[in-house]
Write a structure and sequence with these properties.
110 residues, mainly beta, 3-stranded antiparallel sheet, 1 helix, elongated, FUS1, Tumor suppressor 2, mitochondrial calcium regulator
């Protein structure tokens, strides 16, 4: 999750850009500043899926195929990882929504 946040790209969506300080000023502020214009919600509703579809429509993280290898006259079955003809899953809806990784909030439990 570390590099997927908006700070990695130089953006800080939860503060105002009118201060002119950029991400340095946004990191030093203690209170949440509401941006002007369209408000940014602190929740993430979708994420990029980490699984793939194969030619048969099966969904998994990795696919393997069994190959027969003949070595010294003996037949052995080996698993070979499939890298071709895989389709990414796309975006997945999160239920329930998660907090954005760059949302400046402290979670506290008594």
């Amino acid at each position: 999750m570390g590099a997927s946040g908006s700070k990695a790209r130089g953006l800080w969506p939860f503060t105002s850009t009118t201060g002119g300080g950029g991400s340095e000023a946004a990191g030093s502020e203690q209170a949440l500043v509401r941006p002007r214009g369209r408000p940014v919600p602190p929740f993430v509703f979708t994420r990029r899926g980490s699984m793939f579809y194969d030619e048969d429509g099966d969904l998994a993280h990795e696919f393997y195929e069994e190959t027969i290898v003949t070595k010294n006259g003996q037949k052995r079955a080996k698993l070979r990882r499939v890298h071709k003809n895989l389709i990414p899953q796309g975006f997945v809806k999160l239920d329930p929504p998660r907090l954005h990784v760059d949302f400046p909030v402290i979670l506290y439990e008594v």
